[in-house]
Amino acid sequence: MKKLINIFLPILIIFFIIIISCKKTDSNVSQDSEEIFKAFYSSEPIPSDIIWLTNDTDLEFASPEAKKGGTLNSFILSFPNTFRVVGPDSNNSLRGLILDNQLSLLEMHPNSENLIPSLATHWAFDKNKRTMYFKLDKNAKWSDGVSVTGHDYAYTIEFMRSKHIVAPWYNDYYTNFIEKVIVYDDYTISISLNKPLPELYLYLTLSPTPRHFYKQLNEEFITKYNWSIVPNTGPYQITKFNKGKFIIFERKKDWWAKDLKYFKNRFNADRVIFKVIKDNNIAWEYFKKGSIDVFGLTIPDYWYDKTKVKEFEYGYINKIWFFNDTPQSAMGMYLNQDKEIFKDKNVRYAFAHAMNVEKVIKTVLRDDYFRLENGYVGYGKYSNNKIRARRFDLDKVDNYMKKSGWNRGDDGIWIKNGLRFSVDVVYSQEEHTKRLVVLKEEAKKAGVELNLDRLDPATSYKKILEKKHDVAWMGWSTSSRPRFWEHYHSDNAHKPQTNNVTNNDDKELDILIDQYRNSIDENERIKLSLILQEKIYNIGDFVPTFMIPYVREAYWRWIKLPKKFGTKVTDNLFDPFNTSYGGLFWIDENIKKETLDALKSGIKFEPVTIVDETYKMDIIK
Amino acid sequence: MIRINPLTLNKIKRFKSIKRGYYSFIIFFIIILFTLFAELFINNRALIVYYNKKIYFPVYNKMYPGKVFGLDYDYETNYRELKNNFSNSSSDNWVLLPIVPFNSYENDLKENLYPPYPPSLKDKHFVGTDKAGRDILARLVYGFRLALLFSFTLLIINYMIGISIGCIMGYFGGVFDIVFQRIIEIWSNVPFLYVVIIISSIVTPNIMLLILIMVFFQWIGMTWVMRTITYKEKERDYVLAARSLGASSSRIIFRHIIPNTISIIITYAPFSISSGIITLTSLDYLGFGLKPPSPSWGELLQQGWSSLQSYWIAGSVISAMILVLTLVTFIGEAVREAFDPKLFTTYE
Fold it and tell me: Which of B73, B81, B104, B109 has the most A C-beta neighbours within 10 Å, making it the best mutation to test the interface with A?
């Protein structure tokens, strides 16, 4: 008997544990999905006092001459580890290409910057300043033929909040920033943020997620969808791929949006092939042979020297230098105001006047870069274009330094009470050394000593964020509107791990920054933005250096571009998919044949180098 | 007056008779002498300026601002311009410039032409400029001086620590010997390059710090050799004699044993110098060496590699390395041969 109990008891216990745990998970799942269900679907009618907006008056930007057909051959440097666009390893080179074929509710017109329809035909703003309403296009279809409905947007929220996608940032963003999607009927929805913000459309134009494809998510998501081709709403879909070798996108012949005003005559190539070529130099050789159709030439070496070959001189390959007008990274020197030497405004001004950035541009950078005039260039109405960066000027350096009681020492460097004007410049890219040595030698003339302190990227970033630098040589990434709080508010000064790397601490400025952040009136924000930039210029803790407001590319002559080549925001003229400005080019098969014949027989064409300044910023004209 | 031991004299005679090594030594010595006074040959400061009946020697003096010579600026005089000014005007002022009128830092940049510039006699860039328009010859020479300073300091500190500890281990033996043997064994397994990379990613090393890091790992090399020799030497009769005369241990080690092992130490020295130069060059090449813009062979090599079409960059630094390392190796071989004990002692 005892023996029997000894055997049975453990088995019984295990059995119970299994039953209990099963029950527990079951009830969890049903509870969760019920909650989500309640949150997403509403039986209340849509408010009647909203005004529906649409846009069919802005100009089209595609060329009516465009012909469909042909293949665009391009390359990627590495094959992605997954086709998923969320979760581990998803941040790869292909992600952008896949996402570009996933339309969102609205687009911004690349030239006028007004909203234009995409998956939604109409939109409206709620009075609460945190909700937008959308009427969906009833013709919109997934690539597998299923209609796109409001439920697919509700599913985006469910999908992005799911723990199974292993993407904590998205989990958080779609929970704490985006509040909810309400589905009124199959083709009417509203989306809300958790708090009122100006220019809601920057945040609320979500993309749908195909609910019929994913259904209920579970912990297998990460592995199950690694190589699945998810239904999309855009012009192309992956049709073939060979891991490590190539990926082929094919144009949907009966794409639902092909005749819409702002999509007409775009996305013309029948196929887009991305070969994996692991080295830029090898890709360049492929390009010269014609196995790749387009190649970026922004680097001066390529634009000037490497293009001195037969293919360019005989006119088989054309070059284009296209100026655009987009927000520019705030590249430059950030002076740490917590360091004794930079507490004095005159010294900061003098430092700026001691930097011969123009000489660096003229000599080392082959006059290809442009002087950045201020940290907020290219933000349209938000940019204060009256501001000019302080130029190299020895007299002004003299004036400012003498005003603060400094004198030149024996070695020509300014000195005051034993403190020499000698500062460390923290930077990380070896490529930048040759720019900095020129600045250093020129600064010596102005009596300023720069010590170059090159650290590896992680360490230099750490040093800067811990505010241990004298001068940080760096740039910030851009956003669609100027940001001031991160970089200049005293909330972020004198403490590590914030982006206020100049330790700017100015109560008057704080008030303006808070006003700017809290305002939901666009005009007021623009006005504040201009004032803030002027104030920041007067503080003088940032010496702007360079900007590159253009793209340069080479393309075989069978690739054709519209008369205006691109749009204001184009940063790749041959982008095949970009929903905002991409797919404007087309391929002329007759010219391709003619060119390939000419290549064989050695016939020459007129070499072509286009410089287009239509969208060149006023500030550099 | 230093009295030279007849045995040593013999060795020197023997060294002189090995022509390849001896001439290498002379050439190397001249090169060192030259680099010590490099400012007189390669410099942007003039050797002599004769201005308004006064003579100036800017090379080893403080900085003269342009105003001193009637120019309109407060920063250091550009003597090349000054020379042009003087020769264009009819005054009897003159400037004597060094052969290469550039220092190793300044960027000699031109309008509408982009560096690196090829070698040119007219511009006085005898082996061209690097990618930032700096004279390569100047950077080679000053870089060599830095590398030599580095190697010699490294050698002296290494040998001081290595020889002392090695001798003490060998002479006293016992616990001290065993403990240090284990320490050294563990020490020598620390991967040197990684430590340098880690340290130089946290701070940008200056030359002293780099030497200290290197010493930290390289003092070990000499200890093993010295320990073994001391073991052998301390059993020899002269040590016994000294001890019976009442000499202290330190006197025996430093006055008797070390002088008797000097020949072995010397044969190691040239090779340590060349390895010092190579180490500094390779660290600079990898970007973990001296901080920019210090003139350095490794940095030049890196530039040359990334722009092979500018053959003069890689070409000049590789030739310089081959020359110096060959000379040092020849010297080292000759020293080793000259100090070979088999030639002067006979064992019975």
Answer: B109
Of A359, A441, A446, the CB nearest to B105: A441
Which helix (H) or strand (E) covers residue A590, if one does?
helix A589-601
Report the complex ipTM. Answer: 0.76
pLDDT at B217 over 50: yes
The answer to whether A287 and A306 are in contact (CB under 8 A) is no
pLDDT higher than 80, residue A137: yes
User: Using a CB-CB distance cutoff of 8 angstroms, which residues of chain B are in contact with residue A453?
Assistant: 204, 291
Range list of H helices, A293-341: 300, 310-313
**Closest C-alpha to B300, from B187, B185, B131:** B131
**CA–centroid distance for A488 within its chain:** 22
Which of helix, strand or coil describes residue A541?
A: coil
Select the residue from B75, B200, B300 to test the A interface by mutation, using most A Cβ atoms within 10 A: B75
User: Would an 8 Å CB–CB cutoff place B11 in contact with chain A?
Assistant: no
- Euclidean distance between CA atoms A195 and A178, whole angstroms: 9
Domains of chain B: 6-36+137-343 (1.10.3720.10), 44-97 (no CATH)
- The overall longest dimension of chain A from CA atoms, in Å, is 106
Rounded distance between C-alpha atoms, residue A326 and residue A617, angstroms: 9
Which segment of A2-6, A248-252, A402-406 scores lowest on mean pLDDT?
A2-6
Average pLDDT value for residue range B331-338: 89
Rounded CA-CA distance A214/A225 in Å is 9
Distance CA A499, CA A480 (A): 18
Helix, strand, coil fractions of chain A, as percent rounded to 5 = 35, 20, 45
Q: Which pLDDT score is estimated for B107? A: 85
Q: What is the mean pLDDT of residues A588-598?
A: 94
Sheet holding A419-420, edge to edge: A407-408, A414-416, A419-420
Q: How far apart are CA A192 and CA A179, in angstroms?
A: 5
Burial of A453 (0-12, 13-18, 19+ CB in 10 A): buried
**With an 8 Å Cβ cutoff, is B287 touching chain A?**
yes
Question: DSSP letters along A477-519, please?
Answer: PP-SS---HHHH-GGGTTSSSSS-TT----HHHHHHHHHHHH-
- pLDDT surpassing 70 at residue B348: no
- Exposure pattern of A334-351 as b/e (b: 16+ CB <10 Å)? bbbbbbebbebbbbbbbb
Percentage of the residues of chain A whose pLDDT score is greater than 70: 93
- Domains defined along chain A, listed by start: 30-59+102-233 (3.90.76.10), 246-325+549-620 (3.40.190.10), 332-547 (3.10.105.10)
pTM: 0.80
CA distance B205 to B207: 7
Interatomic CA distance for residues A103 and A112, integer angstroms: 20
By the 8 A CB rule, do A40 and A157 touch? yes
Under an 8 A CB cutoff, do B107 and A441 touch?
Answer: yes
Interface check for B65 against chain A (CB to CB < 8 A): the answer is yes
